[in-house]
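Section 4.2 – Deliverable D4.2 (structural model, holo form)

The reporting period included a commitment to supply a predicted holo structure for the target in complex with magnesium ion. Inputs used:
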Amino acid sequence: MKYKILIIEDEPSMRLGMSHFLSSSGYTVTTCKDGAEGMLSIDKKNFDLIITDLKLPRFDGLTLLKHIRTVSPNTGVIIMTAYADIKNAVQSIKEGAFDYIAKPFSNEELLIAIERFLKFRNLELELSMLKESVREKKSFENLIGISPAMKDIFDRITSVAGTDVPVLIQGESGTGKELVANAIHKLSHRNDRSFIKINCAAIPENLFESELFGHEKGAFTGAKDTRKGKFEFADSGTIFFDEIGDIPLSLQPKLLRVLEDNMITRLGGNTSIRVDVRSIFAASRNLKDCVASGTFREELFYRINIVPVSLPPLRERKEDLPDLIDYFLSHFKDKYNRPELKVSHTAYDALLSYSYPGNVRELKHAIERAVILSKEGVIDIKYLPDEISGASNIAKCINGDLSLDTSVRNVEIQRIIKALNESSGRKIDAANSLGISRKVLWKKLKEYGIE
Ligand SMILES: Nc1ncnc2c1ncn2[C@@H]1O[C@H](COP(=O)(O)OP(=O)(O)OP(=O)(O)O)[C@@H](O)[C@H]1O
Ligand SMILES: [Mg+2]
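Output (structure tokens):
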């Protein structure tokens, strides 16, 4: 594809000469004779490069440059300038121009400047593509994780996806069981068919059978029409039983039978219907314990536990935290249009230190909330939920990785910053709330370098 260049130059012979030369060098060239025309062209088309004079009638080069930076930030700008105007040219570089060339210049000089820019831009593109592929390596079908435990899980998903064996995914709430089920379906040959989810914890016992297997008209009071069940909807696809530990005991033998022979009968019906489904199960409670306590049938357990996938809680794979934080941050920054947001050092520290009993879901919600609440371009610790902000250095101090001295210091710093924040920086109020004199506070601020 040819590169598109826009030339903005008021002097006709120069404009024409450049246009002629660059077209014959293989570029697609557009020309404008003043700033206003240039402005219109910039808004209409995407150029790879804009070469503009600095002094122009109706909007000068610097004004144009600022406009280009905002509406078309990936377009390069080269400024043409007379020797007398070098100061402004330097200013234009500060404003984001790629380069400037001093008039008069030869065709060759012009070409060198253009090629330098294109080379630079291609390198930049290559770099961002590389970064993207690195990012992809850290994730697998929307599952983020670099920990050995997650890598094992990605491996297992890949091995079972092509088969029809049942998979049982176990893990605490919020560890990503549903994402894993989705990944298996997406990587299977059934991926163009339906993925039907059934939440066993949410269906009343008396409706369960008809939910799963459907019913014929008049099968029970209220069954006004014939209705298909989830198994029929999932035919040729995947059925996902979430919270399988909550399935009523009375239904377990029926489910077991369907899993064995792939035949279902609608409630009130007398014909068997063959279904072709792949079943995936998830449980947040330990099914073995359910078997032991008699709420889950052992035969069913063995039938579904052919390939177990066990998702460890987030606190046991803390090395996944940085990527998860990055991932959710960029997701919610996009979603809420807050591209400028950065995470403060203390907030980041707290996010890394916390133990997340609610696992990845808890982290995700905390980041979403912080992105929404944060002001002044910074996600500060005060925008995190109390339990997370409280985890910061204090957790480290208590866990004993730091000396007592450092621990006390850390806690003091956190406490003083909090008091200052709460008193909007008024030292006397902060000192009062800390129960120390203003002089002691002043000494500590100096010692800790708190501004
Ligand atoms: N490894 C991960 N990478 C990216 N997002 C994740 C990961 N694990 C979980 N999530 C996200 O966290 C949230 C909870 O995940 P999911 O619903 O799969 O958990 P679950 O184990 O099914 O929880 P529950 O038992 O409460 O149903 C979802 O929004 C999901 O997208
Ligand atoms: Mg779930």
